[in-house]
Specification:
The structure is a single chain. The chain has helices at about 40-50, 65-75, 125-140, 155-165, and strands at about 30, 35-40, 85-90, 95-105, 110-115, 145-150, 170, 175-180. It is α+β, with helices and mostly antiparallel strands. It has an eight-stranded mixed β-sheet with strand order 1-2-3-4-5-6-8-7, with helices on both faces. A hairpin with a 2-residue loop joins β4 and β5 (about 110-115). The longest helix has 13 residues, at about 125-140.
Length: about 190
């Protein structure tokens, strides 16, 4: 589980240009080789929350976690915009296949993130690809020096996603494993 989207996560606690891998800080899309990470519009949030199917959604989107995060996003202005929650779209098909986002604002220079990919698109490396882009983007944010996420012990695949995104395991308890990546100090 990653820290934002069940079944990949628990509930939350508490500017790139074309020369960079991620995108623009004004809320524009972040692009990877196969994905587009797009801020959620008011219409998209409403559709997820009221169950209105959209033609550009994968057949199994939204998952339960997507509904939880849509509610969180609708109720928390900091969850909107450039450093907030995003949909994950397959560039080839144009379909929404999951969600990813930062839990803004950072606390003491650290920002948490979470993600979820619908079952029909798992096993394709989408979660790692999206996480790498979001982590890189998070480090462009003012004052952010650490990006973190946690998973449930019962979901080791999510831990592998975080490791592929460059995060390292740094603590755990009986139910969760915590990962983080700290940017190198400026020279």
């Amino acid at each position: 589980m990653s820290s934002s989207l069940p079944p990949h996560s628990r509930a939350p606690q508490g500017p790139r240009t074309s020369a960079h891998p991620a995108g623009a800080p004004d809320g524009a899309d972040l692009r990877t080789a196969r994905l587009l990470l797009r801020p959620r519009s008011d219409g998209e949030l409403a559709a997820v929350l009221d169950g209105t199917r959209q033609p550009h959604w994968a057949a199994d989107f939204p998952a339960d976690g997507d509904r939880v995060i849509a509610g969180f996003t609708a109720e928390n202005p900091a969850a909107r915009g450039a450093y907030g929650q995003r949909q994950i779209l397959e560039r080839e098909s144009g379909l929404v296949v999951g969600a990813i986002g930062l839990f803004w604002p950072p606390a003491d220079g650290a920002v948490e993130f979470g993600y979820g990919i619908v079952p029909s698109r798992r096993g394709r490396g989408y979660a790692s690809e999206a996480a790498r882009a979001l982590v890189a983007f998070a480090f462009t944010a003012p004052g952010v020096h650490t990006v973190c996420a946690d998973t449930e012990r019962s979901n080791p695949a999510s831990g592998r996603v975080l490791e592929k995104a460059g995060l390292e395991r740094w603590s755990s308890d009986d139910t969760h494993v915590r990962f983080r990546l700290t940017a190198p100090a400026p020279a």
